[in-house]
Structure formats: C-alpha cells, structure tokens
C-alpha cells in the first residue's frame, strides 16, 4: 500500500500542479513567436503525445487498482503476475509518465528558448524529407518575420545565414536549368521586405542587401539561369519597395543585378 501511495502521489502531483503549468507555458508560444504553425508543430511532438497518453493511462490504472477486481484467468506459472496485474500496470504507467514528463519539459525548454529552438528547426529542416522540409522552412520564416519586428539582430543573422545556404542548395541542384524555388522561398523574401518597409528605424541593413538586393534569389558567384517565376517575384519585390518609397532597397537590387549581368 505504501508503494502504491507513492505512485498515486506522483500521478496526482503531475495532474494537479505540473500539467496546468506546462500548458500555460505552451499557450504563450503564440505570443512569443506569433505563429500558429509553430504551435501545430509543438502539438505534433512525440513527448507531448506520449505524456498526455500516459497521464490518462495512469489515471485509468489507479481506477483499475482501486476496484480490486478478481483475476479472470489463472495460470500456475503466472499467478503472481495475474494477481498483481493492477499494481504492475499502475507501476509501469507511473514510471513511463515520469519519464515522458521530463522529456516533455525538455521539449518545452527547447521551444521556449529562441536560440535553441532555431537550431532545432534548422536541424529538422536539413534532416527531413519531402514536404516536411517546407513545414520547418515556413516555421523558420515565421521566426524571421517576428525577429524583424523585434529588431533582434542575432536571430535575424542566424536565419539569414541559413536562408542563404537553403537558396544556394536549390540553385546547385538545378544545373543548366532556369532556377525555380519552392513558393515558400519566394514568400519569405517578399514578406521580409514588407516587414522591413513598415519599420522606420530599421537597423537590419544587411538583410536588405540579401532580400531586396536579390542576393538570395540570384546568388553571387555563379551565372544561374533565371526562371520566369523568379523574374515575376523580383518585380514584386521591387514594386513593394517602390510603394513604400524605399529607394535604398530599389538601388540595392540594381547594384546586385548589374553585378550579376556583368
């Protein structure tokens, strides 16, 4: 009974104290990153799913143990396991609940720390395949937009370096063909320019050179063929800079375009 009470205490403590606090922290992700996609990614994380499952399973095992139901079958060699099955089920569920509780806490800390979370997303993007790469790319883009609003130079520089490499990988994979990027690649540049245009005291000048200057789209060291889609988005980028009367952004593009043609 004393051991059972320890298990029950763990479950009750996690349910009554830890569970509400953890989900209160999770609810602040939207405020922290302004991205519904990041919240969706978090809810898909395995530690969160397993933690919720074993919390429910642990509560069910407490109820099963409390009912003290007689064994339905008997096997001579397995009498001990059968007679104590409710207790063993409670013990196993509690241990797994505690394990996944700590894994869940660790995952929250990753998401809650912007620098760690950004590294985590970049790693996921690099190691994922097919459509998953676009999901993580869009999540990184959302952090970029939020960082521009906050004028967080450290975060923006890290993301800008990642973006440069991501665009470069696409260019290198399309040898002797007009380069056409995934739509999310064009959108991240357009929205980044738009975010920068709305900020009066923008200190992220290096980002202007890479976005409105078309560095990410055109590259710097290779003579790549430009697709019609890329041309179309370049003109959209120029147009939004003109609409906001950002002459420096327009000139930044023409400087790089002149170098590219030369």
Short description:
With 262 residues, the chain is mostly helical. It contains 14 helices and no strands.
Domain count, please report it: 2
Number of helices: 14
- Beginning-to-end CA distance, first to last residue: 83 Å
What is the correct CATH architecture of the largest domain?
Answer: Alpha Horseshoe
Strand content: under 5%
Tell me what the structure shows.
By secondary structure, this protein is mainly alpha-helical. It folds into two domains: 2-112, no CATH class; 115-261, Serine Threonine Protein Phosphatase 5, Tetratricopeptide repeat, CATH 1.25.40. Helices cover 78% and strands 0% of the residues. The chain has helices spanning 2-26, 29-33, 36-43, 46-67, 79-83, 85-112, 114-127, 131-150, 153-173, 183-197, 205-211, 215-218, 228-243, 247-261. Helix 8 (131-150) runs antiparallel to helix 9. It starts with a helix and ends with a helix.
Outline the secondary-structure elements.
Elements: H1 2-26, H2 29-33, H3 36-43, H4 46-67, H5 79-83, H6 85-112, H7 114-127, H8 131-150, H9 153-173, H10 183-197, H11 205-211, H12 215-218, H13 228-243, H14 247-261
Helix pairs in contact: 1-4, 1-6, 4-6, 7-8, 8-9, 8-10, 10-13
